[in-house]
Amino acid sequence: MMGSRPVHLRRSDGFGLVELVIAAMVLNIGVLAVISAFQAGRRTIDRAGRETTAQAIASGQIGAYEVLPYLREIMLDPSRGAPQDALYRQAPELQDPRNLKQPPSGTCERVGPGGLCLFAKGCHSGDPIACTPVQPSVLGSDGFGYRVDSYVVVRKTRRGTAKLVAVVVRDALRPGVVYARASRQF
Predict the structure, then answer these.
(1) d(CA 149, CA 82)
(2) Angle 61-67-71 (CA atoms, 0-180°, nearest 5)?
(3) Other residues' Cβ atoms within 10 Å of the Cβ of residue 143
(4) Domain spans of the chain?
């Protein structure tokens, strides 16, 4: 029997080494895709939580202005809080062409970037938080730090002038990341 082979070499049932390696690679690709989808979902949930907290902080800051007496005279005190950096000075809230350089009432004591009035007499008796243009480290309810930039400008409207209070909430560690913007016209 020279031409006969053993029976166990002719059977094709079971997997060979090559098939097992290929199956393991396909399984790894599937598992990695699922893991990366979970990580992307987690990042999205974290970002949404930060944005929600930032919006609550911005609403609270706007609310601090709403309760101030004589809001028409309140402006910001640039000597309070952190220095006003380029992020603060180049914000769209200050660059708007509808902003007036000088409030019509003439109560401006300090002029800020671009000639905008940043400090008026009413701020002395007002809430110091509301009068602070840059708060570099505000702790949110989620335990993360936020930077709160507040802007108070006098803006030209169809009916004359109005005061615009705008708040930008940024990441405290990465100030270029904006989580929320809120504004209210008084």
Answers:
(1) 10
(2) 95
(3) 7
(4) 42-185
Q: For residue 116, which of 75, 61, 147, 162 has the smallest C-alpha distance?
A: 75
The closest of 98, 92, 99, 146 to 118, measured between CA atoms, is 99
- The pLDDT of residue 168 is 92
pLDDT of 22 above 80? yes
Q: Are 113 and 93 in contact (CB under 8 A)?
A: no
Query: 108: which 2 tokens?
Result: 């401006």
Mean pLDDT, residues 32-54 taken together: 94
49, 53, 92, 146 from 181: Cα distances, Å: 15, 12, 11, 13
Mean pLDDT of 127-139: 75
Answer for the pair 156, 167: CB distance below 8 angstroms, yes or no. Answer: no
CA dist., res. 119 & res. 107, Å (int): 8
- Provide the 10 A C-beta neighbour count for residue 182: 17
Residue 15 has pLDDT above 60, yes or no: yes
Two tokens at 92?
Answer: 């769209």
Cβ neighbours for 139, distance < 8 A, ≥ 6 positions apart: 145, 146
